[in-house]
């Protein structure tokens, strides 16, 4: 893409606060955006070939509320990303991320986080620090178990479809706001599904099709009707 086309996008973004440049084959984050660190509220660079985010620049978008980098080639996120104290929506589907920065819990305004189609092997413990998080999508990763820390999550919806989960901590029933739990196409035996999900949790939608048991067996369990 030519410089003049990029310049036109930058000029428009200066007025609107929205910078959107999808499907352009970009291999790096446009450095021209550093002129707009105090303007932008939305950045969408999905469907490109970006391999990394520039640490020095990315942490300066202090008004940014929405950042979409779906379908890129990111392998790590810089710690500086976690300086974005107003960020409410972060979408990083279909990248190559194996973990989140240790400082990720500092994204205190985050409400929606999408990390589908990455290479995460565990539930990131940093998510438990995010008090305003409503929805987390961790589908299509390589997560094998759900640990005790899950009980501290504040989310309303947790999507863990298409992982390799065979074990779930009983603490999942302690999630104070969890209403929707998606566990389709995992490796769960019926005996590994904590009974307390049915009897003692806030969960009202439990999606477990495509595991190692028949759904009709689940319906026979005590607490299912509730």
From TrEMBL:
The keyword Repeat applies. Coiled coil: none annotated. Pfam families: LRR_14. The keyword ATP-binding does not apply. Residues 58-153 form the Disease resistance R13L4/SHOC-2-like LRR domain. One of its GO terms (cellular component) is cytoplasm. Keywords: Leucine-rich repeat, Repeat. InterPro entries: Leu-rich_rpt (IPR001611), Leu-rich_rpt_typical-subtyp (IPR003591), LRR_dom_sf (IPR032675), LRR_domain-containing (IPR050216), LRR_R13L4/SHOC2-like (IPR055414). PANTHER family: LEUCINE-RICH REPEAT-CONTAINING PROTEIN 57, PTHR48051. This is Leucine-rich repeat-containing protein 57. It comes from Diceros bicornis minor.
């Amino acid at each position: 893409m030519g410089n003049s086309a990029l310049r036109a996008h930058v000029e428009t973004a200066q007025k609107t606060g929205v910078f959107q440049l999808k499907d352009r084959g970009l291999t790096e984050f446009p450095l021209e955006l550093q002129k707009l660190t105090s303007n932008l509220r939305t950045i969408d660079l999905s469907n490109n070939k970006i391999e990394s985010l520039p640490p020095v620049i990315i942490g300066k978008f202090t008004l940014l509320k929405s950042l979409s980098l779906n379908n890129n080639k990111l392998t790590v996120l810089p710690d500086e990303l976690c300086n974005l104290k107003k960020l409410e929506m972060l979408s990083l589907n279909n990248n190559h991320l194996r973990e989140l920065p240790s400082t990720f819990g500092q994204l205190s305004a985050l409400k929606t986080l999408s990390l589908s189609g990455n290479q995460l092997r565990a539930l990131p413990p940093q998510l438990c620090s995010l008090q305003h998080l409503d929805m987390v999508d961790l589908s299509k990763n390589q997560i094998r178990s759900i640990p005790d820390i899950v009980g501290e999550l504040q989310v309303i919806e947790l999507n863990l479809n298409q992982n390799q989960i065979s074990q779930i901590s009983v603490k999942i029933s302690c999630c104070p706001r969890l209403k929707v739990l998606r566990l389709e196409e995992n490796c769960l035996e019926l005996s590994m599904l904590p009974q307390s999900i049915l009897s003692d949790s806030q969960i009202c939608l439990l999606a477990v099709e495509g595991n190692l048991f028949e759904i009709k067996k689940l319906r026979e369990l005590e607490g299912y009707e509730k």
